[in-house]
């Protein structure tokens, strides 16, 4: 095992951009239409409910990261809580597989956006992009998070364009805001809740922030702040963009579009160019780079705990990055993008997300009782209990929904 350690160079602004880039990703550019189709003109409330649902688990992650600032994150938390290496290893594997599969699915969609501009073939496109992103991840963590910060700014710029042109182009004085405020009717709020279930996926990614714990400056203070600030920032952007979108295009039209925000932008500006489609390319690249960093740190952390082969914990002396873990991560993302039908696998791994969240919240309860004297960032004991209830409910709803689809 290498004696060289990871470099602590990541500060709060970089961490917030890293987290926001991971959460926003390419998802909002597609999901917003599907959510509007379910929740109708009340879609902003679906995003608000989803944020509240995610917030409880995010606060639990913030305390655990402050208590145990290690790259293996969830695997270490569970080991600390239950002293069962098999459970922590299994959860670590689920997180690694989920990260690789989601990255493979994202990178597979890159070619579709690039083809109208430059067509060098799908295989060549994916290979060159993965070669570039893996090289950046090996180069250094500061360089990587700097690039993710830049790409995140581009993603946010795309959303701000929608917001800006929305409020400039739309005559707010002629809008009946009562039309967008849901009444106290059960059927309306059921649709809002169903929309929030889908919107929940637009917030996934906050948990990957903690994988950088060993590379963050003043981690016990910086990490909790970064998680909370990131969620607030992303939620505000989502709600404003959704509000503008449902005013510009009716929810059904949004839901039927493959590029809903691109359609909104063209309607607002009359521009025929696919500006938001180009921005989506940066969102895709950013999402994959963030996942490469996350998965490689998880591999490194588990190898450091002697769960995985020790060569995966090797740190390059010049770049101070986990070189072999990063190269293997890039290889498997590319491999799955080439050869595996990811749709079914991606659906199955979504169950893993909820199971991991439930286990992490249980772990925090156990740790708070075992080690009550921690003086850093702490949340009240009722927070993980509420988080368990929310995630268990969402898990059961997803199971019911999937069984219903199979039955029909």
Automatic annotation (TrEMBL):
It is found in: Membrane. The keyword Magnesium does not apply. One of its GO terms (cellular component) is membrane. GO terms for molecular function: amino acid transmembrane transporter activity. Pfam families: AA_permease_2. It is a multi-pass membrane protein. The chain crosses the membrane at residues 12-32, 44-66, 87-111, 123-141, 148-168, 188-206, 226-247, 275-300, 321-342, 348-367, 379-401. Its main location: membrane. InterPro entries: AA/rel_permease1. Keywords: Membrane, Transmembrane, Transmembrane helix, Transport. This is Amino acid/polyamine/organocation transporter, APC superfamily. It comes from Nitratiruptor tergarcus DSM 16512.
């Amino acid at each position: 095992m290498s004696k060289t350690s990871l470099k602590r160079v990541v500060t709060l602004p970089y961490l917030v951009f890293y987290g926001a880039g991971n959460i926003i990703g390419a998802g909002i550019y597609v999901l917003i239409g599907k959510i509007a189709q379910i929740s109708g003109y009340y879609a902003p409330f679906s995003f608000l409910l989803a944020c509240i649902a995610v917030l409880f688990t995010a606060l639990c992650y913030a305390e655990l990261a402050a208590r145990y600032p290690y790259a293996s994150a969830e695997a270490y938390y569970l080991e600390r809580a239950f002293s069962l290496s098999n459970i922590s290893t299994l959860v670590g594997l689920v997180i690694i597989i989920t990260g690789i599969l989601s990255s493979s699915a994202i990178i597979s969609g890159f070619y579709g956006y690039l083809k109208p501009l430059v067509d060098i073939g799908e295989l060549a496109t994916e290979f060159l992009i993965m070669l570039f992103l893996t090289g950046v991840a090996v180069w250094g963590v500061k360089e990587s998070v700097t690039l993710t910060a830049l790409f995140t700014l581009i993603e946010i710029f795309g959303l701000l364009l929608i917001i800006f042109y929305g409020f400039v182009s739309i005559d707010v004085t002629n809008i009946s805001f009562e039309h967008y405020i849901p009444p106290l009717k059960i059927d309306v709020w059921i649709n809002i809740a169903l929309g929030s279930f889908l919107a929940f996926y637009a917030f996934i990614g906050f948990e990957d922030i903690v994988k950088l714990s060993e590379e963050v400056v003043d981690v016990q203070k910086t990490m909790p702040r970064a998680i909370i600030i990131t969620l607030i920032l992303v939620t505000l952007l989502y709600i404003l963009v959704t509000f503008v979108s449902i005013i510009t295009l009716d929810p059904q039209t949004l839901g039927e579009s493959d590029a809903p925000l691109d359609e909104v932008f063209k309607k607002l500006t009359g521009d025929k160019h696919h500006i938001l489609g180009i921005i989506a390319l940066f969102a895709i690249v950013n999402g994959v780079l963030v996942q490469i960093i996350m998965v490689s740190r998880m591999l490194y952390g588990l190898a450091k705990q002697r769960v995985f082969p020790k060569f995966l914990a090797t740190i390059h002396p010049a770049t101070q990055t986990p070189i072999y873990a990063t190269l293997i991560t890039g290889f498997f993302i590319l491999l799955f993008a080439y050869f595996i039908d990811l749709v079914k696998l991606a659906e199955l791994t979504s169950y893993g997300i909820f199971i991991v969240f439930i286990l992490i919240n249980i772990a925090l309860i156990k740790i708070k009782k075992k080690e009550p004297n921690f003086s850093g960032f702490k949340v009240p004991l009722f927070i993980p209990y509420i988080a368990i209830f929310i995630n268990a409910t969402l898990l059961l709803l997803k199971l019911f929904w999937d069984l219903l689809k199979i039955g029909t």
